[in-house]
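Human:
Care to share another protein and its fold?

Assistant:
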Amino acid sequence: MISLIMLTFGAVLSAFALEAFLIPNTILDGGVTGISIIISKLSHVPLSVLVIILNIPFVFIGYKNLGKGFLFRAVYSMVLFSVFLTCFKLLEPVTEEILLATVFGGSLLGIGVGLVIHFGGCIDGTESVAIVISKKTNLSVGQIVLIFNLIIYSIAGFIFGIDRAMYSLLTYVITFKVIDFVAEGLEQAKAALIITEKGTSLSEEIYKRLGRTTTTISGKGLISGEKEVLYCVLMRIEVYELKEIVSSMDESAFVTILDVSDIIGNHIKSNSKVKKINKGE
């Protein structure tokens, strides 16, 4: 219940930041939302409609890699975000001072998006695609999102002027830093320690749904006796889904989530290997 409330608040705050600060001053968000804003300003198609339509393939990719739980939270967040974009469009801009709009709009947007990500949702499908690409390349999620956004801002520079592109880039930096504070960053790696009696089944399900391998360590509790300890490294956006997997399969499991400062080596396996495991090959 709390997660739905926070997803709602995050989506509403994000929509308010865009319609009350950024869009009236032609300052773009990044990702799919940024593309939607450009198309909306050029074609006059409602932004709320474009956000839903353009995110469909990205959400599908996220669903294939993060599961049904992610799909529900993403669709819920995006629909709310779209509805309140329409509602807040009727508001007068809070300020026409471009720098104030950039700072306050970017900060509020970062808080809203950060809350949505923190509670396992998504209002822009760019991150889910970035996770897929990062598994197949040496680029981090944050680097992929940055490259994608730089392309968008370059296009915006040609259409709306270089000053608007620069303000949009500044907004992105502010937004990302606030997201980093609220949700600990899109590319922030996490390590999960899971103490369980169902190590094998949990490992296979994590592998199947997230494409993450686990290392199994034998453990012994003072009272509970023999246990298995699973160690798994994953991205911040996947933590919520991991918790859902563990709670649905082993309610008695004990889970701790740790920060990871650096990663050396490849801790992500290909989906083809997952499919072979599922087929029993």
Q: What stands out?
A: The first strand starts at residue 189 and ends at 196. Residues 269-281 have pLDDT under 50 and may be disordered. The longest helix spans residues 162-183.
